[in-house]
Design goal:
Strand content: under 5%
Pfam family, one: LrgB
Protein name: TIGR00659 family protein
Main location: membrane
Subcellular location: Membrane
Membrane topology: Multi-pass membrane protein
Number of helices: 13
Order of helices and strands: HHHHHHHHHHHHH
Largest sheet: none
Length: 230
C-alpha cells in the first residue's frame, strides 16, 4: 500500500475526499455536532495511514494539490460579504470593535495560559495565531520563532471546536443578533467557523468572512507585541 501511495499522483487526494465525504454523510444522517466532516476526515485519515503503514510525507505528496485550493477558496468568502456590504457600512464601528476585542481576547488568553503552565517562548508563540486562518497563521508562527507544524494542528483544532460548539455557545449566552454571531465565529474559529456561520444564515456568513481577513491582519500586528511578553 505504501508503494502504491508513493507511485500514485492522486491517492492522497482520493483518501482525503473519501474521508471528508464519510464525515459529511455521518453529519447529515445523525445531525450530531461532533460528527464534524473535517474532524471525521482527520480521524479516518490518521487511522488509515497508521493501519496501512503509510508515512505522512508519502500521503502528503499526493494530497498537496488540495492545499492549492486554500487561497482561492478563502478569496471566494468575499462574495457573501459583498452581498451584505450595505449592512456592513451601517455597523462598521461595532464590527471593527467586535473583531478587535475578539483578537485581543484570543491573544491574552494564550498569554495567561502560557504563564500559568510555564511554557517556553517557542511554545508560547506557536499558540498565538491559533484563531486565524492557516495561510496567515503559518507565516506568523514562523516569523515569531514558533513550531509551524504544531501551529497548523492548533489552528485546525480551534476551528473544529468553534464549528462544533459555536452555535451552542451563542444559544447558551442568548446571543441572537446575526452580526454578533458571525463576528464571533469568524474571529474565534476562522474559515472552519465561517463554514458553520454560513449554515446558520447569510448575514452570519458574510460577517464571519469579514472577520477572517480583519482578524488575520490584527493578529499579525498584535502578535508581535504579545510575543515580547514571554
Amino acid at each position: 500500500m505504501s508503494e502504491f501511495m508513493a507511485t500514485s499522483a492522486y491517492a492522497g487526494v482520493t483518501i482525503s475526499l473519501v474521508s471528508y465525504g464519510l464525515g459529511a454523510w455521518l453529519k447529515k444522517k445523525f445531525g450530531f455536532g461532533f460528527f464534524n466532516p473535517l474532524l471525521i476526515s482527520i480521524i479516518f485519515t490518521i487511522i488509515f495511514l497508521c493501519t496501512c503503514g503509510i508515512n505522512y510525507e508519502t500521503y502528503n505528496e499526493g494530497a498537496k494539490y488540495l492545499s492549492w485550493l486554500l487561497t482561492p477558496s478563502t478569496v471566494c468568502l468575499a462574495i457573501p460579504l459583498y452581498e451584505e456590504f450595505e449592512l456592513l457600512k451601517k455597523n462598521a464601528k461595532a464590527v471593527i470593535l467586535g473583531i478587535t476585542a475578539g483578537v485581543l481576547t484570543s491573544l491574552a488568553t494564550v498569554f495567561v495560559l502560557a504563564k500559568l503552565m510555564g511554557l517556553s517562548h517557542e511554545n508560547y508563540v506557536t499558540l498565538l495565531p491559533k484563531s486565524i486562518t492557516t495561510a496567515i497563521g503559518m507565516g506568523v508562527s514562523e516569523e515569531l520563532g514558533g513550531y509551524v507544524t504544531i501551529t497548523v494542528a492548533v489552528i485546525v483544532i480551534t476551528g473544529v471546536i468553534g464549528n462544533i460548539l459555536g452555535e451552542f455557545i451563542c444559544k447558551l449566552f442568548r446571543i441572537h443578533e446575526p452580526i454578533s454571531k458571525g463576528l464571533a465565529l469568524g474571529t474565534a474559529a476562522h474559515a472552519i467557523g465561517t463554514a458553520k456561520a454560513m449554515e446558520i444564515g447569510e448575514i452570519e456568513g458574510a460577517m464571519s468572512s469579514l472577520s477572517i481577513a480583519v482578524a488575520g491582519i490584527l493578529t499579525v500586528v498584535f502578535a508581535t507585541v504579545f510575543a515580547g511578553l514571554i
